[in-house]
């Protein structure tokens, strides 16, 4: 079955990144030269998504502007013969047959509520959710995480949630899967779920397999989100609705291939920038001696 729509919750305040996020949405922070939002939109389109829905809030119009044409800029680049840059700017527009639209989340009621806001656009079909903070790098020989998950969804014909092993001390930062079979082998990449818990403290966490921001969900999740029950942090949690979905159908965790950087966090964001800059051969030659010098200094 085709996954037609991807929901990108982008209404958050970005408080972990203040003060820069006071006037700049965190999704516009760049990894090297592209804003975070561009990486996830490209990931969605590369996985066959036709419709990207931004669940947005006040002050986030710049996210849509990024993918819109800018006549003034294009004319200026054309006049100066800067063809490469012109192409780069034009390529930001969604390819033919694809679209980016937005809906508003009128109040910060949580991730689950943000996803619920997209229900009228998604309709009664399975859909994807991508959290732009979770920047996941895959090498040239590995399909993007969403592409990997679409493949798993087609095999399993059930909701699939990306998971990754984290240190047991960090379970309180994530949604955590309660595996059906408590002894999950390191080699298993599909993990049947018995439940999900949002941000459990390490002493009660059912595993150290954390949910990372890529989901493919069946539409039965929407009525569960709509019942509006508040969970951790007083918010309507997507994790709780996924756990409730298990009362009706199977849900699987998928240990994806790729390196994840938490770009909602200052350290993860810097790591992503260093790693991605080093991949650019034109940057690497200057950056490497600089990094060596810095390492020597701080050793
Ligand atoms: C959200 C989800 C959480 C998930 C995390 C992944 O939390 O609620 O279940 O593990 O994204 O990044 P947040 O980081 O928004 O607090």
User: Which spans have pLDDT < 50 for at least 5 consecutive residues?
Assistant: none
Percent helix among the residues? 25-40%
Give me the number of helical elements.
Answer: 11
- Say which CATH homologous superfamily of the largest domain is assigned: Spore Coat Polysaccharide Biosynthesis Protein SpsA, Chain A
| Number of structural domains | 2
Radius of gyration of CA atoms, rounded to a whole number: 20 Å
CATH class of the largest domain: Alpha Beta
The CATH architecture category of the largest domain equals: Alpha-Beta Complex
Strand line-up across the major sheet = 5-4-1-6-11-8-12-10-9
Q: Per DSSP, what share of the residues sits in E-state strands of 2 or more residues?
A: 15-25%
Structural category is: alpha/beta
Which ligands occur here? 1-O-phosphono-alpha-D-glucopyranose
Write a structural description.
- The protein is 35% helix and 23% strand.
- The protein has 299 residues and is α/β, with parallel strands linked by helices.
- The protein folds into two domains: 5-264, Spore Coat Polysaccharide Biosynthesis Protein SpsA, Chain A (Alpha-Beta Complex), CATH 3.90.550; 266-299, no CATH class.
- The strands form three sheets. Strands 5-4-1-6-11-8-12-10-9 form a nine-stranded mixed sheet, with helices on both faces. It has a two-stranded antiparallel ribbon with strand order 2-3.
- Strand 2 (30-31) and strand 3 (34-35) form a beta hairpin.
- Helix 5 packs across helix 9 (238-245).
- The longest helix is centred in the last third of the chain and has 18 residues, at 281-298.
- The model has no long low-confidence stretch (mean pLDDT 95).
- 1-O-phosphono-alpha-D-glucopyranose (G1P) binds next to strand 11 and helix 9.
């Amino acid at each position: 079955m085709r996954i037609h729509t991807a929901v990108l919750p982008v209404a958050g305040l970005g408080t972990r990144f203040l003060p820069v996020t006071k006037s700049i949405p965190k999704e516009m922070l760049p990894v090297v030269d592209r804003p975070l939002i561009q990486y996830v939109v490209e990931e969605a389109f590369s996985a066959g998504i036709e419709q990207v829905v931004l669940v947005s809030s006040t002050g986030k119009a710049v996210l849509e502007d990024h993918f819109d044409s800018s006549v003034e800029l294009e004319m200026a680049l054309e006049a100066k013969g800067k063809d490469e840059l012109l192409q780069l700017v034009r390529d930001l527009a969604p390819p033919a047959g694809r679209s980016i639209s937005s809906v508003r989340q009128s109040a910060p009621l949580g991730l689950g509520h943000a996803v619920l806001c997209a229900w009228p656009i998604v309709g009664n079909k399975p859909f994807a959710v991508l959290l732009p903070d979770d920047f996941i790098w895959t090498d040239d020989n590995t399909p993007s995480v969403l592409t990997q998950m679409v493949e798993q969804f087609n095999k399993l014909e059930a909701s699939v949630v990306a998971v990754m092993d984290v240190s047991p001390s960090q379970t309180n930062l994530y949604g955590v899967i309660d595996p059906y079979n408590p002894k999950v082998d390191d080699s298993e990449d599909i993990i049947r779920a018995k439940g999900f818990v949002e941000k459990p403290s390490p002493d009660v966490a059912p595993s150290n397999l954390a949910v990372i921001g890529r989901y493919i969900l069946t539409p039965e999740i929407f009525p569960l989100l709509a019942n509006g029950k508040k969970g951790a942090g007083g918010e309507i949690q997507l994790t709780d609705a996924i756990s409730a979905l298990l009362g009706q159908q199977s849900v699987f965790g998928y240990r994806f291939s790729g390196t994840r950087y938490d770009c909602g966090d200052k350290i993860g964001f810097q790591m992503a920038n260093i790693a991605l800059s080093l991949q650019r051969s034109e940057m690497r030659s200057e950056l490497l001696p600089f990094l060596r010098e810095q390492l020597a200094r701080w050793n």
